[in-house]
Design a protein that fits this description.
Strands 2-1-3 form a three-stranded parallel sheet. The protein is 37% helix and 13% strand. The chain has five helices and three strands, in the order βαβααβαα. Strand 1, helix 1 and strand 2 form a beta-alpha-beta unit.
Length: 108
């Protein structure tokens, strides 16, 4: 099995990558800290997509995300919900976001 792990340097991503490797999978891991993968920047998305061109994966696991952005944390109640904050808090970690930022669907 060939797997692509986005967010491979974080706790969840690293654990999933290790488990897959232990099971014999060929794992490609990408992360902001390890590879400069920035899901909020179209240029880095395009660069990584180009590097992956021609590769096929049986599994793509998205473990990206941020618990705190500009001092704001995820809401703990409905009253604290903020649509604009939610967009930045969760939107950048969605695979849909890759397509919305111009990365061809075959890479998302």
């Amino acid at each position: 099995m060939r797997a692509l792990i986005l967010g491979a340097s974080g706790g969840i991503g690293a654990a999933v990558a290790a488990r897959l490797r232990d099971g014999g999978a060929d794992v490609t891991g990408l992360s902001r800290s390890g590879d400069g993968l920035d899901l909020t920047d179209a240029a880095t998305l395009s660069d990584h997509a180009t590097r992956l061109d021609g590769q096929r994966f049986d599994l793509i696991f998205n473990a990206t995300g941020a618990l705190m952005i500009d001092g704001s944390r995820p809401e703990k109640s409905f009253d604290a919900a903020d649509a604009d904050l939610d967009y930045f808090q969760y939107g950048h970690s969605s695979l849909w976001g890759l397509c919305a930022k111009g990365v061809p669907p075959k890479y998302a």
